[in-house]
Amino acid sequence: MRDLHNKSGAQRAQLAMMLEVCAFPKPGNVDRNHDYEDTWLEHFLASAIFAKPAFERAEKRDGSVGELIKEAVALTNFHKGGNTHFGAFILLIPLVMGGDIEGAKRVIASTTLSDAIYFYEAFGLTQVRMNETDDLDVNDPAATDKLRKQGMTLLNVMEYSADGDMVTREWTNGFALTQRVVAVLKRSANGRKGIVDAFFHLLSTETDTFIVKKHGTDVARWTMEQARDVVEGRRDIEEFDRQCRNEGINPGSIADIIIAGIYVALGEGWEWDLA
Q: For the segment 29-44, what is each residue's pLDDT rounded down to a tens digit?
């Protein structure tokens, strides 16, 4: 399969979601060899399939960012595997709408209060973890009233969340980690290995904010340090993976950013099926 950068943005987004979840090994996360008890590989693949209409609308600019994030969540909120791709949709929808990172930045800069309200409605459809200190609680019916009173756009919401969430931070820093993923993928002569290399590149250098919200900062730092030991040959990857799974440590935010990086790399001609 060649010339993937000429495929539609919707197709590349679906492929990025599929390639990320199938990549192995990714300690702590679902992959083609490991499921969690309640969340399986099939749940992630089903979401990649059923998100297609939202991506197609995004590519046509048929709707706003917040509206399309909500549609993507609603389309994929039908299985028993829980939230699989909410963070990925936050990154993919503006990327598909804009065509690339520069286009996504322009899309993000034009978001509105309506986008923020749609986003909170989408958030309410998920079981995504929030920081305990967040006062704009999506489960609070008054949250949208606060948005209206403060006149917050969706970009403002992302700015508000950026300190504690590495996915929303991508909206405010020009997709910095996404661009690092793209660079790692392009350096790899093996597409399948390149995804794993990109995963470990982020896991060994960044504290995953999903782990922070679920287990606390100390566990997130421990995970980063252990990943660094794997990269530098001081720790066995299978034992690290087993410990993460046993303790429910899954770097979900990094997975979302990997998906965004794969999407961008595919658009720039990266060939995932080189071995």
A: 999 999 999 999 999 9
pTM: 0.94
User: Alpha carbon 64 to chain centroid distance?
Assistant: 19
Burial class (CB in 10 A: 0-12, 13-18, 19+), 141: exposed
Domain layout of the chain by residue ranges: 7-267
Give pLDDT tens digits for 4-31: 556 899 999 999 999 999 999 999 999 9
Q: To which CATH superfamily is domain 7-267 assigned?
A: Triphosphoribosyl-dephospho-CoA protein (1.10.4200.10)
CB neighbours of residue 31 within 10 Å: 21
Angle at CA of residue 255, ends 253 and 260, nearest 5°? 100
Task: Indicate if the pLDDT at residue 1 is higher than 50.
Answer: no
CA 204 to chain centroid: 17
Residue 82 main-chain phi, psi, to 5 deg? 75, -170
